[in-house]
Design a protein that fits this description.
Elements (H helix, E strand, L loop, with lengths): L8 H4 L4 E3 L5 E3 L20 H14 L12 H14 L9 E7 L5 H12 L6 H14 L1 H12 L4 E7 L4 H12 L1
Parallel strand pairs: 3-4
Antiparallel strand pairs: 1-2
Helix pairs in contact: 2-3, 4-5, 5-6
């Protein structure tokens, strides 16, 4: 009897498995229409220089806007190019820990942002916590995020990256709300 070979979590990802006629699983490096995730960074290649440029710009300005045509790979570049480099310690300077909050604005952008921020710092995303953070943001602005999440972030040693995917939703849903009134 052959000993079983261990498989990595990458091989266990359903979208990465394909079967052949004999029923054995083979690796499929194409994820289809969805973006690559940070766990799939080994499969993401060809955009190394762009990922390095993102690191440099993030270091200089602490803000990035990755813009481009629909489907050109913006999300993959950030998720499988930039984030793994941050996790690996390529941008540490004063702080070497990173937390990541990923959100899509949708039709409730502040609530969606609050949920992603709370989850990123391991605070329960209960309705009460979400509402409290949203009200604080509406009253105090971005400083409310820092004030309320600083302790959960682990003090001064942690960076927080907020990835807003589908940022254009802010404009699409805003226009829809104006049309309704």
């Amino acid at each position: 009897m052959k000993p079983e070979r261990s498989t990595t979590s990458l091989l266990q990802t359903p979208s990465l498995l394909a079967g052949d006629e004999a029923g054995t699983a083979t690796m499929n490096p194409f994820v289809g229409l969805r973006p690559f995730e940070s766990e799939e960074s080994l499969l993401f290649f060809g955009r190394r220089e762009q990922a390095i440029e993102l690191l440099q710009r993030l270091h200089e300005t602490r803000f990035l806007a990755v813009v481009g045509s629909s489907g050109c790979g913006k999300s993959s570049l950030v998720r499988a190019g930039l984030i793994p480099k941050l996790k690996a310690g390529f941008l540490v300077e004063e702080r070497d820990l990173w937390r990541f909050a990923t959100m899509k604005p949708g039709d409730a952008p502040l609530e969606n942002m609050a949920v992603s921020l709370l989850e990123a710092v391991s605070v329960e995303a209960s309705k009460a916590n979400i509402n409290e953070l949203v009200e604080a943001i509406q009253g105090e602005g971005a400083q409310a995020i820092l004030a309320r999440l600083q302790e959960a972030l682990g003090g001064e040693d942690t960076n927080l990256l907020l990835l807003v995917d589908q940022f254009e939703d802010l404009f699409r849903f805003a226009l829809r709300d104006e049309d309704a009134s």
